[in-house]
Amino acid sequence: MANAFFGGVHPRDMKAATNEKAIQQLPPPPEVVIPMSMHFGAPCAPLVQKGDFVKVGQKIGEFRGLGAPIHASVSGKVKAVEPRPYSMGGNMMSVVIENDFKDELSEEVKAPADPDALSVQEMAEAVKNAGVVGMGGATFPTHVKISGGIGKVDTVIINGAECEPYITGDHRTMLERPEEIIGGATYLAKMFGVGKVIVGVEDNKQNGIDSLNRVIAEKNAPVEVRALACRYPQGGEKQLCQAITGKQVPPGGLPSNIGCAVFNINTTCAIYRAVHDGMPVVKKIVTVAGSGVAEPKNLECPIGTPVSRLFDECGGLDEKTYKLVMGGPMMGMAQYTAEVPVGKGTGAMLAFCADEEQTVQDPQCIRCGKCVAACPMRLEPLFMYQYASKNMLDELNAAHIMDCMECGACAYACPARMHLTHMFKYGKQKLKEKMAADKAAAEAKKAAAEKKEAVAK
Ligand code: SF4
Ligand code: SF4
């Protein structure tokens, strides 16, 4: 490996339960609940009403400002347009569709006559119309990343690290759908005008690397696979950029600041389907695993499928299950109900039994410094914890807490089991609130001064 990022940890990968099992199609659910927010940005406005009939791939939500459109994932009748439980907490306006099991494709879905003849603008437009977002969990609208990066980005990276424990959906995609990945990467090379796209894959997926290399050779594609030594959080955008290019994203910056754009493996497949077939994002591959799951699997299901159906398909939940997590164990979100739907960014649903919990009452920092050594952003978690817990927001800001990616590496390394990541989420929220209040106060002061000046004139 040429380069490495600072810090990181080596959690047990726990991938053996699913990494040799082929992706299975979930039997179609009788109903899907499609939230109008499955992307970074403002929620979409619903385009359908109760009683409407919709077909697969039909646009049912339009974005405003930063966002991506949302499409029906099954055909059938719109049963309701109303707030429903949502994976990010609380309720979200959702389109509920009663599946008619006809699986009728919308007339809106049109494959181009010759995808290879499309211009860069036409390809970017196809990605936008298909509602593609970062499907590794970030859910940033992909068309914005593409259009904002053209002319500025000279290194396009496909993120095949899949460094979170348990999750194997990207690995299985490398084995089962390498043509889509290489096809999508080739379209990205054309859109960004780069000679080669680099796929970064952790070296615990050697058969995935071989599978991609076979297709690259067959198609003589402008793609290169780089094997990366396993280390969490290799799949963090900034860490992957450093591992691939040796360049560091500056504090507060983005990969584009160093000429990089990063796309997840399944995002790349979605780009391929959007450009080649005109097909919107209507399905998602989800790893269902953890000690509370009888038979862990990788399932592909329509967007909007309640996660309870995924657990049912895996033999149901163990009665000792005490925690459900959407996403990986390091960065995922705990869920209070299994009725939340699968979204575009849902890569895993994990269920854990009570005897896995390793918390301590009233943890005390022993100043060992292990959290500092583990932090890939070169932050000082032990001090950030003190500042956040005491609401010392100026000090927290000066400690660069906004650069914390909430990866959980510090909490994993901490022998005292301090609730570091939780405290940083809280601290960031408090700091954002203070920044917003300061901004509002400054604007009010400025407006009052201008008014006074106008009166004086
Ligand atoms: S959670 Fe934040 S502070 Fe902790 S290791 Fe990750 S980036 Fe660093
Ligand atoms: S790893 Fe935990 S105990 Fe050690 S310095 Fe950091 S917060 Fe304190």
What does this 3D model show about the protein?
Strand 7 and strand 8 form a beta hairpin. The strands form 4 sheets. Strands 1-14-13-17-15-16 form a 6-stranded mixed beta sheet, with helices on one face. The chain has a 4-stranded antiparallel beta sheet with strand order 2-8-7-4, with no helix packed on it. It folds into 3 domains: 24-277, Rossmann fold (3-Layer(aba) Sandwich); 283-356, Ubiquitin-like (UB roll), CATH 3.10.20.600; 370-437, no CATH class. It is built from 13 helices and 17 strands. It has helices at 120-129, 142-149, 169-176, 178-192, 206-219, 237-245, 265-277, 307-313, 370-374, 381-389, 393-398, 409-413, 420-456; strands at residues 24-25, 31-35, 45-46, 53-54, 59-62, 70-71, 76-85, 91-99, 155-160, 197-202, 223-228, 260-264, 283-289, 297-302, 321-326, 333-335, 348-353. The longest helix has 37 residues, at 420-456. With 457 residues, the chain is an alpha/beta fold. The protein starts with 23 loop residues before the first strand and ends with a helix. Helix 1 crosses helix 4 (178-192), helix 3 (169-176) packs parallel to helix 5 (206-219) and helix 10 (381-389) crosses helix 13. The protein binds iron/sulfur cluster (2 copies). One iron/sulfur cluster is lined by residues 365-371, 381-382, 385, 413-416, 418.
Features:
single chain; 457 residues; alpha/beta; Rossmann fold; Ubiquitin-like (UB roll); six-stranded mixed beta sheet; four-stranded antiparallel beta sheet; 17 strands; 32% helix; binds iron/sulfur cluster
